[in-house]
Write a structure and sequence with these properties.
alpha+beta
């Protein structure tokens, strides 16, 4: 698609103050990421009406990679190149902001998501089936009969369980540092504060060092997802402590929601299968756009 083929539209940045207003065109994850300053957004307006919106973030460990968090066009205005227009403008803005340092763009999505694959393919993305990237879904109400909540899992000796809302920011900063050491950091302290704090648990040892965490975030009106999971040294006892506490909290607080657990490794997938055997698995498709030759 060339610039000459793009429709006449206006484009506006979506910052923390505008994120809630753009919510109908963005996922819950995108809204929270923009509000916390970890991502940026752009809205496409035509004839005075917002008809599409996108959210993206540069990976903190590699700012040459842009992750497309959300891209949505209102159903009544699809197949008019609005999504392609928005994507091209978003990439152009990011390329300018990074002084041409952007090299790759990635996006992960559920197979069958309407309109996503044709749009990305037309923009030059390469589609890859990632056998390790899986989205597991289970009604929260079904947790009551799951092995996760039936296994005996006492809090390990010398450790204490705490919800996110109980912990001060300095404890969360320690957690973020520990996550970074183990290369599993997905959330910042502001993002943790936007999570479901009363249903998210951190396990601390007797020196108040974080040994495990299970952090849940909202996903729309009826969804919740495991947005951060960590256990030191792969300890099953640590993992069970935080996962059981979080599962029981979700049953009490959000019994009608649907729980989503994303996994990227074989070991994580096997853990979900063992603890939540009734969950439904969907393999994600990953799209990659290489800009090196641009």
């Amino acid at each position: 698609m060339t610039k000459e083929q793009l429709p006449e539209v206006e484009l506006y940045s979506i910052g923390p103050q505008e994120a809630d207003h753009a919510a109908p065109l963005l996922t819950a994850e995108a809204v929270e990421s923009i509000k916390s300053g970890q991502a940026f957004g752009m809205a496409l307006v035509e004839e005075g009406e917002a008809r599409a919106a996108a959210c993206a973030r540069l990976l903190p460990e590699n700012e040459a990679v842009l992750e497309l968090v959300s891209l949505y066009v209102a159903p009544a205005f699809r197949r008019r190149a609005l999504g392609g227009t928005l994507l091209m403008e978003l990439l152009e803005e990011t390329m300018t902001a990074t002084d041409g340092g952007l090299r790759w763009v990635t996006a992960a999505y559920l197979p069958g998501t309407e309109g996503v694959e044709p749009l990305l393919a037309k923009a030059g993305f390469r589609m890859e089936q990632d056998g390790q990237a899986i989205s597991w879904q289970l009604p929260v109400a079904d947790l009551v009969d799951s092995p996760l909540l039936k296994y005996p899992a006492p809090v390990p000796a010398g450790c204490t369980l705490h919800t996110l809302e109980e912990l001060p920011d300095y404890c969360l900063r320690q957690l973020v540092q520990e996550l970074a050491k183990n290369a599993v950091a997905d959330l910042t302290v502001p993002e943790m504060r936007q999570a479901l704090q009363a249903a998210s648990y951190v396990l601390l040892d007797r020196t108040s060092q974080p040994k495990a965490c299970a952090i849940f975030s909202g996903a729309g009106e009826d969804g919740v997802y495991l947005s951060q999971f960590f256990t030191a040294s792969g300890s099953a006892a640590y993992a069970m402590a935080v996962l059981q506490a979080g599962g029981r909290a979700l049953l009490t607080q959000l019994p009608s929601a649907v729980l989503e657990i994303p996994t990227l490794t074989g070991s994580s997938a096997r853990l979900v299968q063992k603890l939540l055997p009734a969950s439904q698995a969907t393999h994600l498709t990953r799209a990659v756009l290489e800009l090196t030759g641009a």
